[in-house]
């Protein structure tokens, strides 16, 4: 976050999300790599079939990218960070 193109001052992610706590850590596998790449660039993998591309779009609906980290709202309404 040392180089923000919008001209805004860099902020600490934890300052933007009050009362954050780390509850569990899960190792990110290759399942999320395509989701992150698609969300960051808007481009799907060239080797995907049209059906796989549709499935990728559906998978990304429940995720958000915040400060270059992948997040998802869990079924218990907690914000989960995927690292």
Key structural traits:
single chain, 83 residues, alpha+beta, three-stranded antiparallel β-sheet, 3 helices
What does this structure look like?
The chain has 83 residues and is of the alpha+beta class. The protein has one domain. 33% of the residues lie in helices and 16% in strands. The chain has 3 helices and 3 strands, in the order H-H-H-E-E-E. Strands 1-2-3 form a 3-stranded antiparallel β-sheet, covered by helices on one side. Strand 2 (69-73) and strand 3 form a beta hairpin. The two termini are 16 Å apart. The mean pLDDT is 75.
In this structure, how is the largest beta sheet organized? 3 strands, antiparallel
Structural class: alpha+beta
**What are the low-pLDDT stretches, counting only 5+ consecutive residues below 50?**
none
Number of domains: 1
Summarize the structure.
Strands 1-2-3 form a three-stranded antiparallel β-sheet, with helices on one face.
Secondary structure layout plus pairing:
Layout: H1 13-16, H2 30-41, H3 50-60, E1 63-66, E2 69-73, E3 79-82
Antiparallel strand pairs: 1-2, 2-3
Helix pairs in contact: 2-3
């Amino acid at each position: 976050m040392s180089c923000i193109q919008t001209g805004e001052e860099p902020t600490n992610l934890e300052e933007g999300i009050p009362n954050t706590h780390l509850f569990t850590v899960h190792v990110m596998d290759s399942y999320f790599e395509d989701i992150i790449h698609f969300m960051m660039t808007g481009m799907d993998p060239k080797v995907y079939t049209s059906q796989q591309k549709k499935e990728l779009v559906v998978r990304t609906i429940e995720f958000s990218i915040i400060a270059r980290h992948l997040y998802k709202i869990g079924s218990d309404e907690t914000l989960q960070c995927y690292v």
